[in-house]
Amino acid sequence: MKKRHVQKMLTMALTAAVICSSVPVSAETVSENETAVTVDTAAEQETAEKPELEADQAETKDTEVEDGKEGYLSYCIYQKPDETKYVEITRCDYNAKGAVEIPTKIKDIKVTSIGNEVFFGCSELTSIEIPSSVTSIGNFAFSGCSGLTGIEIPSSVTSIRDQAFSSCSGLTGIEIPSSVTKIGEAAFSGCSGLTSINVEAGNEVYDSRDNCNAIIKKATNTLIQGCKNTKIPSSVTSIGYYAFYDCSGLTGIEIPSSVTSIGDLAFWFCSGLKDVYYTGTQEQWNAISFGSGGDVLNVFGAYDEDLRQNISIPFTLHCNYSRPKPDVPAAGTSLKEKTGREFKVTESDGFESKPSVTLTKLSAKEKKAKKVTIPKTVTINNVKYQVTGIAAKTFKNSKKLQTVVIPDTVTEIGTGSFEGCKKLKSVTIGKNVTSIGKNAFKNCKNLKKITVKSTKLKKVGKGALTGINRKCVIKVPKKQLKSYKRLFKGKGQKKSVKIKK
After folding, report:
1. What is the tens place of the pLDDT at every residue in 190-241?
2. Which terminus of the chain has a lower count of CB atoms within 10 Å, N or C?
3. 223 and 344 within one domain
4. pLDDT > 90: percent of the chain
5. Are residues 404 and 274 part of one domain?
6. Residues 294 and 359 in one domain
7. Separation between Cα atoms, residue 501 and residue 394, nearest integer Å
């Protein structure tokens, strides 16, 4: 199968201004009399050697029995030497738009594999449902699906192959289930929108130790995927190939002195990177192996065709750096407000990120209230947090709830958040919500009015509107009317439910 990887066209050498001090240093406190030492790199960089992709299906001993098509999806039925059969999804039409659901079975045979390049470049897809029968996701399977804002990888999956989700720039979060034992090279490279990464507890091969917002391979202590909110633990010894590729939101990164190697392409296209905070000495930094980049840290980006030269963006290296003790708890920490509300920290103390939380439990008073307005911010232990999410089942089966107002700070409404709220009549969804989870409003039988203010909505989960009132009216922004009609289609509501501007 021909490899069709979308390549960034040109390169930019990164000039490093090296400032080494014996006291903690930050970008704001570099003194005026310190001299920046620059390290020049060649205008043309040697192309980094890339690892071989995993074998295609055709190289296995399994026999192709039959192929066909179902909706947007093409498939192939294979038979193993022991005569058991399985289905592999082999292609999706390039004109596919909106939501696509991969079936659990085709012709009563389980779909267990998503093949190489199946959804490659399907940029107009907004959501893809992967069934719990799937065990393998192929090379470049979802590469270039920039319209996806979220993807739920089921706990049946054991293998995610090379560049499977590369250049999915709309993805904001990744959750790797404990079942996954193989993550291929650069599986999530170029996912520039990532703000959170987590490996489920119990995974034998990978972890996200210390709530680091990264994927770390346990056996080698190698960080293989990071994001703009990554905090590299002091146990990490290597930063892998493509680890922060195209992480344009990364403005600063702390690298512990435990790191002895930084792989090829690790920081390519990190155009916003301004400060590298290194906890070791200058001599230790000089001893780090930088892959094909030689003895300096390189970032590749734009190239000026007219001038035929790289565009140089400086970053500052702060050696002997010691991070001040953060006031904000680590991501994943549970917090309780005086009112009785409970939250979970979703973003902690990244270099640029504001601390944020997801609402996980209502106060006793709110559980009995007819109207609940979710706050934009909460202050707990003298730390102010933005409320950016509503966790799964937070309002489930609230008996008296009639009206809910979701603020503009919230971006995600979790699975089953309002399921079974039988007296709920009206919901207002704020301007920045991008995702509504499965069964979010299931069995809200009196829900007659949903006002969607968001122009950023990309995903509405399966069954989100099942059992809502047949006379419900969903009001959406004028410019999104057409696209939102597609997005809300088939989410369990009766045909009489209207969507209008």
Report:
1. 898 888 899 999 999 999 998 899 999 999 999 999 998 899 999 999 999 8
2. C
3. no
4. 57
5. no
6. no
7. 29
